[in-house]
Design brief:
29 helices; five-stranded mixed β-sheet; two-stranded antiparallel ribbon; disordered N terminus; alpha+beta; Neurolysin, domain 3; single chain
Length: about 700
């Protein structure tokens, strides 16, 4: 659950825990804590210019204490339990805690520091305990069960019925029906898991920043585009290494290096560092943490009455069971693996022309795939970059939403930001009605974790008869501008920007009463539908010309380049598909375990990859020690969700292709039945309301070139 209900801890236990570091000087508390005041910036946006590390723990303390009092009032009430005094009261509790937790989470992911990481470690077990104090409260659960048992006679609206059902199931799935001994065991597991998951993420960030490839000879830059050299020189200068070139493990730096560097030994060095993150035998080594997390998840699943952690997780998804996940993965894996083997032979043939006998290695794939792509399609990704200026791509995403739903995006310079890279936009309906606020934060920095994501500081809801509008942010790690050029990104990065914007739209266009049912608070294998469907507009030849314009001349991308992009759309799909899908299998392997003994992580992972027949020329997209999706970011037994949602998005986009990319009726139906509804109905019911039937897998297989 996204709601604060599962996030908090009692003040009575918080105070002793905070005294563990009595030898340290007390942190001075500012006179005014912005979490305790009304936010006066436009639309109630956070006063980012006021937050200090010392504000968080007092705000967490008060937020948890406030919610504890609110929950106690519900649990001990002498009134007969009703939907309003029990279910709605639970839903509305913890507003201060939600506020501080959403802001703190935004900082720890987007712009962290040593101080914030220390607070994160301290507060994690407190939040875990507070969550358990709520869901394991016997009196509270008895009242909730009383309402649930009489649900048929309550004359609830469909959304109220959904909230009641979800709240009751969340309590049961969180252990509310267990006896006291098992509840105590569950509390201990949850607390330990919370601490381990935080530590895992912090270790990955350390490893991301812990290695750099420093080049001091110009000849070692062979094959690299001039823009890359310039960026690497500026990165070196920032580190006090003027006259040298620096490449990091952040993807905007290392992936292009794998793709273009003619120095095989340097590609190997950087690649091996990239896949060794969290597995270096240092203080940031994650292997023991991975093993312990997996073991604890086995124990927790068994305690709650499930065969495996995957069974526990998948019960609340569209896939429903591990068998449902494997059925889809197996359909895709077999043709993709066969295609990847053919691709590997083609690349080895190119290596032979370079006088390299082989065999093809993982650090060779990007380099020779790029050569093959140029040979087959006369398409150079670097030749495309000048047409994908980041702000123009973002405007292209905005314009797509304008054409579909009449939305407008107005820059706001009067709203505080948490970093100078961040920009703010007010989102409005065609008639000028305020929809929400969107922050964009697109460049890498040491204080930000890798990847791209979207989240909300405030989710949409209706409170006290008034609509609460959302505050959403999109984050990426795209190529930074240099002194000579703006941020010029790859076509793949452009589709990523559209992807995250799709998540933002899901939150922005939510129209529900209850926050916990709104926006992206949906099953993992449904949440990627609104994001992935936007990628289809990003690559459509009609749309791409509206935003892909040369950053110097303003001329639209030539038709011949658009044609080449389209023709190359299925290029290297064997590699792309098995690199991703192997990570799905690895995720499932960790989470279908039935016994809690800890594993040798390397041996376990190697065995999992051998079972599916992953070829040695391809490394699983995320090796276990840096697989943040499943060990810290909530995608455990759920990494398959991207490909599951791709089945949905490819099938759903067919509706637009049939009626027109910007057909008003189709766009309205998609907004009304998918984007606005959140989790107010079963996902498949929402999908069928839009599409008129269940999705078909064929459009996905066709799009990836896997359909014979």
């Amino acid at each position: 659950m996204k709601k604060a209900l599962v996030l908090a801890a009692a003040l009575a236990v918080l105070i002793p825990a905070c005294k563990l570091k009595e030898t340290q000087a007390p942190v001075p508390t500012p006179d005014v804590n912005p979490f305790f005041t009304e936010w006066t910036a436009p639309f109630g946006t956070p006063p980012f210019d006021q937050f200090k590390p010392a504000h968080y723990m007092p705000a967490y303390e008060k937020g948890m204490a406030d919610q504890k009092a609110e929950i106690a009032a519900v649990a001990v009430s002498t009134e007969a339990p009703t939907f309003a005094n029990t279910v709605e009261a639970l839903e509305r509790s913890g507003r201060l805690l939600s506020k501080v937790n959403n802001v703190f989470g935004m900082y720890t992911n987007n712009h962290t520091s040593d101080e914030l990481q220390e607070i994160e470690q301290d507060v994690a077990p407190l939040l875990s305990k507070h969550s358990d104090d709520i869901v394991l409260d016997a009196k509270l659960f008895a009242r909730l069960k009383a309402v649930f048992d009489q649900r048929a006679s309550l004359s609830l609206t469909p959304e109220q019925s959904r909230l009641l059902e979800k709240t009751y199931k969340d309590f049961v799935r969180s252990g509310a029906a267990l006896d006291e001994a098992k509840k105590a065991e569950l509390r201990a597991i949850n607390e330990e898991l919370t601490v381990l998951e935080v530590k895992f993420g912090q270790n990955v960030l350390k490893e991301d920043n812990g290695f750099t490839l420093v080049i001091d000879k110009a000849e070692d830059l062979a094959g690299l585009p001039e823009d890359m050299k310039t960026g690497a020189a500026e990165a070196a200068k920032a580190k006090g290494l003027e006259g040298k070139w620096v490449f990091s493990l952040h993807k905007p730096s290392c992936i292009p290096f794998f793709q273009y560097s003619a120095k095989r030994e340097l590609r190997e060095k950087l690649f091996k560092a990239f896949i060794a993150r969290g597995d270096n035998g240092n203080e940031a080594d994650n292997k023991a943490i991975v093993s312990k997390i997996a073991s604890l998840r086995v124990k927790r699943a068994a305690l709650l009455g499930y065969k495996t952690h995957a069974d526990y997780v998948l019960e609340e998804t569209m896939a429903k069971t591990p068998a449902g996940v494997y059925k889809l993965l197996d359909q895709i894996w077999k043709p993709a693996l066969a295609m990847a083997k053919v691709e590997a032979k083609e690349l080895e043939a190119l290596m032979a022309k370079d006088g390299i006998a082989g065999p093809l290695q993982a650090w060779d794939w990007w380099y020779y795939a790029d050569k093959l792509k140029k040979a087959k399609y006369d398409l150079d990704d670097e030749a495309l970059r000048p047409y994908f200026e980041l702000k123009a791509v973002r405007q292209g995403a905005f314009d797509t939403a304008t054409k579909l739903w009449g939305l407008t995006f107005t820059p706001r310079t009067d709203i505080p930001v948490y970093h100078p890279d961040v920009e703010v936009f007010e989102v409005k309906e065609a008639d000028g009605t305020h929809v929400g606020i969107l922050y964009s934060d697109y460049f890498p920095r040491p204080s930000k974790r890798g990847g791209a994501w979207s989240s909300a500081i405030r989710s949409q809801s209706a409170q006290d008869g008034k609509k609460v509008t959302p505050i959403v942010y999109n984050v990426g790690n795209f190529t930074k501008p240099t002194a000579e050029k703006p941020s010029l990104i790859t076509f793949e990065e452009a589709t990523t920007l559209f992807h995250e914007f799709g998540h933002a739209l899901h939150d922005l266009l939510s129209n529900v009463t209850y926050e916990s049912l709104g926006g992206t608070n949906v099953p993992r294998d449904f949440v990627e539908l609104p994001s992935q469907i936007m990628e289809n507009w990003a690559s459509d030849s009609e749309v791409i010309k509206t935003y892909a314009k040369h950053y110097k001349t303003g001329q639209p991308i030539p038709q011949d380049l658009v044609d080449k992009i389209k023709k190359s759309g299925q290029f290297n799909q064997g590699f792309t598909t098995i690199e991703y899908t192997s990570a799905c299998y690895l995720d499932m392997a960790w989470h279908i375990l039935t016994t809690p003994e800890e594993k040798d992580v390397r041996a376990f992972e190697n065995a999992a990859m051998k079972t599916i027949g992953l070829i040695p020329q391809v490394v699983v997209r995320y090796k276990s020690p840096y697989f943040t999706h499943i060990f810290t970011n909530g995608y455990s037994a759920g990494y398959y969700s991207y490909i599951w949602s791709e089945v949905l998005d490819k099938d759903a986009f067919e509706a637009f292709k049939e009626k027109g990319l910007f057909d008003p009726a189709t766009a309205k139906s998609y907004r009304d039945n998918i984007l606005s509804k959140g989790n107010t109905r079963e996902p498949m019911d929402l999908y069928k309301a839009f599409r008129g039937r269940e999705p078909k897998v064929e459009p996905l297989l066709k799009a990836r070139g896997l359909l014979k």
